[in-house]
Structures are given as structure tokens and as C-alpha cells.
Amino acid sequence: MQTPSLELKGSSFTLSVLHINNDDMAVIAAELDAKLAIAPQFFIGAPLVVNLSAIQNNNFDLLGLKEILTSRQLIIVGITSASSELAKQAKSIGLAIVKSGKESSSQPQLPKTTKIVKQNVRSGQQIYAKNGDLIIIGAVGNGAEVIADGSIHIYGTLRGKAMAGAAGDRNAVIMAQKIEAELVSIAGQYWLTENLQQNGAAPSGCIRLEGESLTVESLPL
Amino acid sequence: MAQIIVVTSGKGGVGKTTSSAAIATGLAMKGHKTVVIDFDIGLRNLDLIMGCERRVVYDFVNVINEEANLNQALIKDKRTANLFVLPASQTRDKDALTKEGVGKVLDDLAKEFEYIICDSPAGIETGAMMALYFADIAIVTTNPEVSSVRDSDRILGMLQSKSKRAEEGLEPVKEFLLLTRYSPARVTTGEMLSVQDVEEILAIPLIGVIPESQAVLKASNSGVPVIIDQESDAGMAYSDAVERLLGQELPFRFLTEEKKGFLKRIFGS
Which residue intervals define the domain Septum formation inhibitor MinC N-terminal in the entry (chain A) (predicted)? Predict the structure, then answer.
């Protein structure tokens, strides 16, 4: 069988993006020269994408910009984040409109969901509240683990392990009616039983992260 | 409708088989038709405690594998009317138990019996899981010491997640705490957890406190369930537990140290 003379395949490349914040060509040219002077070899023949998000002026001289860049041996691959008027102009002078990968894949943030558990968490059980707070109405036994991306509230005795801010939220807190925990952790900073005892854990308390270390304060329960 | 009661603990040696034998005998003595099943395949003990080890011909695994029918395997207790024992196999292992097989045997037993007591093996593997899977009621046998309490907590978690009732989203298994080998004197000296400590940690209703007693060992060795010895404190405590299981409210006995009388103190007990 004859091999086809051409093939179409998708691939992604890393490109430098040049952000334009000014519509004055003379100023752009001067600043560009200053930048190129730092590492001239590095920029020769470099493919560039021009980001025009800061340009609102529809009379912006795109052709002029193209000439400035090509005269300095830079190659415009395409433009991105341009107003619709400028995008039309770009097409007419043969420039591609590209979308950055980040822009297209950015998802709306998931709403926080709270997880409520209305029973004792027993030894060997593990409960994880993804993207939200965890509320336990009952005790957390020795050998049990409760984990949340947000804060953890325990209306009962905490005897097992509690890990709040599991996804890195440093503002998360752990509150419990009675703290006899094996381990408490917020955003990766943790305390074991002996640390809790040294720091004079109150019978009922709130554990939070202050700077790089945990603190415990009692609650008027 | 028959009630399936599992006697379980997680930890070994806390008194599951002793309690299974005593509770089954107690229920039968109250006139309820009861069968007690040994789930400890490969390490059967229940027949010894019940004093029927010489009468085992067919066992639970034979029935599951349809090598014998239920009536051939069930052993009628000689002392107590209404009481039957389904012994475990000594030559097989726990993998002989399958959900379908156990389910079918329990279904067949449920047609004839009011109470089915499942004597669970220790651990959280197949044997223990099979024993608790079909349960309506769980009697969690616990000694007043930290490792036993921890294992009981683990088993309670299993009951809440791995039982048939949990999997099918039915009303959860009723859980009761049976505290065994309780020694008030050692609680006073701080060597043992108190009833209150254990209740606080496990947070399930207490159904009985069985005192540490010479009568238990004596009864086990002679193959007579300790509940038959109504002179002993352990026997009386098991009777109370059975009454509570049947819905009566009774005060707890044997929770405090027995004060030795003046003469006893001089002459010893």
C-alpha cells in the first residue's frame, strides 16, 4: 500500500507570548530593542504569540507591529486575546488567531459542598469531604480518620485523626467538643498527641494554622 | 420472623463462644426455640462449651456444600429443650463459607427457629464477615481493656458498612455492648477501664456486664454453659443480659466490689 504523502496530526508546543500594553509603535520598538540587547542570540528566529488583551484601541497598527518584529528576526505565529475588530485585521494580514490552552481548559470553580455525618466514626473508617467542610455529629474513635479540603467540625470527642485543609487551604480549622486526638493536621502541618498535650490542649477547642505552626484555643462550650 | 443475633468482638479470647452458649441457652430456657451456629470453621469450640463434641457427625460446611441436610447436622441439646447446635467443621477453613451458602442455611433455619445465634470467630476476615453479614442484632463482646475496646469499635464500623442491612439501606443492625471479664476491684485500682469509660468510647447500649469469675472456666471445662450455674455471679449476670435482650429493664449487678464481711476477712473466703 502506498504511504500517503501527507498526514494531519495534533501536537502542542510551548511558545513565548509577547504582551503588548501600549499602542505607540515608537515606544514598543524602543523597549523591544532594549530587551533584545540583553540576549540577542536567544531571540533570533524565535516564534512568538502576541497577546493583545490590553489593547482596546481598534485603530491599533497591527501591520506596523508585525513589521517591527519581523525586521528584528522575530516570527509572529499568531495573536491571542484580541478584540474582535483586531482579530479581523489580523486575519486580513495573514496572522492566525490562537487560543491558549489554559484559557480553554479553565473550568468554573466547583461550589463548596458540606458533608454531614450523623453517627460515630468508628476505628478503621475514613471519611473524606472533597471541596468542602466536614461536620461530624458524633465521636471520632481511635483509629478513625476524618479528612476535609475545608474545615472539620466535630460535635463529640475527637480521638482519632483529623486532617483539615487537605488540598492546601491554610485558613481551614478543626473544631471539636473534646480533643483527645491521635493527630491533627491543617494544610500539612501536623501535631501528634504529645504536641497537643505540650501545647495545653483545652477540653474543647479550635485548632488553626498561624504562620507555620498550629495553635489551639479553647471554645466557650 | 426469626431474629439473627451475631456475637462478635474483633479481638480473640474475650468470651464470644462462652457468651454465645450462655445467651442461646438462656433464650431456650425462656421457651424460645433457638439455634446456635459456630462460625469458627477450623477452630471449633462451641461444641466443647455446649458439651456435645462427641455427638458431632455432620457440620455447617457439610450443610452449605449440600453433603448433609440441616436435620442431620443439627444437634439437639440434652439439657435444655428448644436448643440446637450447628457445629463448625474442624477440617476446613473459613473460605468454605460463602454468602449464598450461609444465606441459604440461615433462611432454612429461620423457618423453624425464633432466634439464630451466630458465634463469630475473631478477626475481621471472611469468617467474621459471614457471621455478621445477615445479622439483625449484634452483641459486641468487649473486655474492659483498650485493645479489646479498639477492636470492638472497628467491628461496629464493619456492622455499619459491611452488613446486609447496611448494604441494602435497611434499618441498621441493633448493636448492644456486652462487657465480659469485669473486675470491679481492678477498676478501683485503675488497672481496668470502667463500665462508664467503655460505654463512652463505644456509645452503644449496654446489655450486660459479666464479672470475672471462676465459674466461667469451670463451666467451659465441664461443657456446661455458665448460665445454667445460677449460683454463680456470671450465670446470674448472663440471665440478666438475656432478659434485657428480650426487652426487660433491669438494674446492673456486680458493678461494685463485694465488701468482705468481718468474719470472712478473718478466716478468708
Answer: 6-76
Contact B16, B155 (CB under 8 A): no
Query: Cell numbers at residue B165, please?
Result: 442491612
The Cα–Cα gap between A19 and A44 comes to: 18
Who contacts B157 (Cβ-Cβ below 8 Å, separation ≥6)?
A: A121, A122, A123, A124, A125, A141, A144
The string over A124-161, giving b where at least 16 C-beta atoms fall within 10 Å of a residue's C-beta and e elsewhere, is: bbebebeebbbbbebbbbbbbbbbbbbbbbbebbbbbb
Contact present, B146 and B107 (Cβ < 8 Å): no
Is B11 assigned a ligand-binding role in the annotation?
Answer: yes
Å between A122 CA and nearest CA of chain B = 5
pLDDT in tens, chain A (221 residues): 567 788 888 777 777 888 888 888 888 888 888 888 877 777 777 788 888 888 877 778 888 888 888 888 888 888 888 788 888 888 888 888 887 665 544 556 667 889 999 999 999 999 999 999 999 999 999 999 999 999 999 999 999 999 999 999 999 999 999 999 999 999 999 999 888 888 766 678 899 999 889 998 888 75
Determine the residue type at B180: T
Q: Taking CB atoms and an 8 Å cutoff, what residues of chain A touch B200?
A: 157
Nearest to B203 among A120, A142, A143 (CB): A120
Residue-wise over B155-186: b if at least 16 C-beta within 10 A, else e?
bbbbbbeebbbeeeeeeebbbbbbbbbbbbeb
CB atoms within 10 A of CB A98: 17
Q: Facing residues of B115 across strands?
A: B3, B34
Continuous H helices in B143-190: 146-162, 164-167, 184-188
Q: Measured between alpha carbons, how far is residue A62 from residues A46, A58, A65, A114 in Å?
A: 19, 10, 5, 51
**Cα–Cα distance, B232 to A105 (Å, whole number):** 75
